[in-house]
Specification:
- The complex is a heterodimer of chains A (324) and B (195).
- Chain A is mainly alpha-helical and 324 residues long.
- Chain A has 14 helices and two strands, in the order H-H-H-H-H-H-H-H-E-E-H-H-H-H-H-H.
- A two-stranded antiparallel sheet of chain A has the order 1-2.
- Chain A is globular and about 80 Å long.
- The termini of chain A are far apart.
- Chain B is built from eight helices and seven strands; from the N terminus they run ββαβαααβαβαββαα.
- In chain B, the strands form three sheets. In chain B, strands 3-4-5 form a three-stranded parallel sheet, with helices on one face.
- In chain B, helix 2 crosses helix 3 and helix 2 packs parallel to helix 4.
- Chain B is globular.
- Classes of the chains: A mainly alpha (324), B alpha/beta (195).
- At the A-B interface, helix 11 and helix 13 of A face helix 1, helix 2 and helix 4 of B.
């Protein structure tokens, strides 16, 4: 009988992290919100509250502004904006549910970013972010993990730095989803056309927007149909995620074929309507800027002014940056 | 059709052979019922028609699975294409593969979502004939459709839903007497026969 060596535990934990750590956020997201949750948070549903009434151009400008502010100011400003946008989720149709979905996506993004960044961030980069620091080592990886790009000693500062990076991603993610959930693709198409953007560019954007929820829909259907036909029917629920993986792999080809057939139909549909047949072609559609857009314009300008002020006051250096 | 969702919409119950499946998982529901979606291509995950039909039998480790798969291939006239990739077949053949695979799961009740969409009259009628043949073998079908002519020609019973609420139910010839009240014009076949 072999005696278990306790000194092997850190190596075992490291290997478990390596194998399961990266997939953990995906498994968590799938377990908690499921593909149905993804569909809900990437699909337009008709409603009539403040954000739905805004002109799509206003929403797009807002999304760009969020990206600009989150990328150029201190990390905690990104954190505050994340909370603010999550608050806007409460005003949507089924607001509480969408708030919960948004919150969970933020949590998964933070966990994913830290796991994906902290072990690989060298001390020199952390030093650029933190200034001079004394590393507080919280974990030591086996030496041979260096082959995979792991920094031998994981410091608390590297984790903190990764958390700061994640706060630049979350507001952009949330504001983009907010746009998708409150505007139809055709509304965005019309508004951007009115704003003078090239049709080819807008059309690509719209096709991508329409495709995202369809892909989730297709994955969901394909995976569930396999489970319904007996996949993992006699297996204990603890190993169900492995069957999800199997079902996911099996669904790649049918989903690709389905999406390509859909793309072909879209192309035929666009051609038969003489899409882009004449460069001088005109369209008639109303694209109004309402009182709500004016309110939002004031919010956008205020945010822009505040971010410029923050940068001026020294809270504005991007990653890697010095100081809090 | 929210059949695939664990939490059913509204206060509907899903009870089959005295077993309450309202809150059951998809694996448990699959033992009693099966679902062929409108985009049935997404269910075709095997590289040959033969494997696709045998998918469920293999996963459930069924006895005599090769024989059962052969029977189903024969039932759906798929023997000639059994070695081909299901995704390369015609639309009618792909639908038949999806249905054969559904029957292989052992379910006796099959739910079909818009099975006639995008099909011409000949193929719609072929589907109706296939369903009648399977009905005579003891299978039942629940079809969700906007194709009133197909329902009139092939269904035994029908129900009209208005905003998720059942407003009419009965034999097609009874229901189409009143369906116009709910924005569903009766099919021409029905009107001609009534006259």
């Amino acid at each position: 009988l072999a005696v278990f060596d306790p000194s092997a535990i850190p190596t075992l934990v490291s290997w478990l992290f390596l194998i399961f750590g990266v997939t953990l956020p995906f498994v968590l997201v799938l377990r908690v919100i499921g593909l149905t949750g993804f569909q809900q948070i990437t699909r337009f549903e008709k409603h009539d509250t403040f954000y739905y009434r805004l002109n799509p151009v206003t929403k797009i400008v807002f999304t760009f502004l969020i990206t600009f502010v989150a990328a150029t100011t201190a990390w905690w400003i990104g954190g505050i904006i994340t909370v603010g946008i999550l608050g806007l989720y409460l005003t949507l149709l089924n607001g509480r549910r969408k708030f919960a979905l948004g919150l969970f996506l933020v949590a998964a993004t933070v966990v994913g970013t830290v796991q994906g960044l902290a072990p690989y961030t060298p001390p020199e980069i952390v030093a650029q972010a933190m200034g001079r620091y004394t590393p507080i080592v919280i974990w030591t990886w086996p030496g041979y993990f260096a082959v995979l790009g792991f920094v031998h000693e994981l410091s608390l500062q590297a984790v903190t730095y990764s958390l700061q990076v994640s706060s630049r991603i979350t507001p952009v993610l949330l504001s983009s989803l907010l746009l998708v959930m409150t505007s139809t693709p055709s509304e965005i198409l019309r508004s951007l056309r009115k704003a003078g953007l090239p049709t080819a560019f807008i059309f690509s954007l719209i096709v991508a927007m329409r495709t995202i929820p369809r892909v989730f829909d297709a994955i969901d259907l394909s995976i569930k149909s396999q489970f319904m036909r007996g996949l993992g029917s006699n297996a204990p629920s603890i190993i169900r995620p492995l069957y999800y993986l199997e079902a996911g792999f099996a669904s790649i080809v049918p989903i690709l074929v389905y999406m390509l057939r859909g793309a072909k139909n879209t192309a035929i549909s666009a051609d038969t309507r003489a899409f882009r047949a004449y460069s001088t072609r005109t369209y008639l559609f109303p694209s109004r800027f309402s009182h709500d857009d004016l309110v939002m314009a004031v919010v956008i300008l205020t945010m822009l002014a505040l971010s410029v002020a923050a940068i001026y006051l020294g809270f504005g250096r991007s990653v890697p940056y010095a100081g809090f | 059709m929210g059949f695939l969702d664990k939490q059913l919409n509204s206060s509907l119950n899903l009870i089959f052979e005295n077993v309450d499946l309202s809150h059951a998982g998809i694996v448990e529901r699959g033992k009693y019922l099966h679902y062929v979606p409108q985009s049935f291509d997404l269910t075709l995950v095997s590289s040959t028609v033969k494997d696709e039909v045998a998918y469920s039998l293999k996963k459930k480790k069924a006895k005599n699975r090769e024989q059962r798969a052969r029977e189903l291939l024969q039932l759906f006239s798929l023997e000639q294409v059994s070695e081909r990739d299901p995704l390369t077949l015609s639309m009618g053949q792909r639908r038949r593969v999806a249905m054969a695979s559904a029957l292989a799961s052992g379910a006796r009740v099959i739910m079909l979502d818009e099975p006639t969409s995008g099909q011409d009259f000949y193929h719609r009628e072929s589907l109706g004939v296939e369903l009648a043949k399977l009905k005579s073998l003891g299978y039942s079908f629940l079809v969700v459709t906007h194709d009133s002519r197909f329902v009139y020609r092939h269904a035994d019973r029908m129900a009209v839903l208005d905003k998720g609420v059942k407003v009419l139910e009965g034999k097609p010839e009874e229901v189409f007497e009143f369906s116009e009240n709910y924005g569903i014009p009766p099919p021409t076949d029905f009107l001609l026969r009534r006259e």
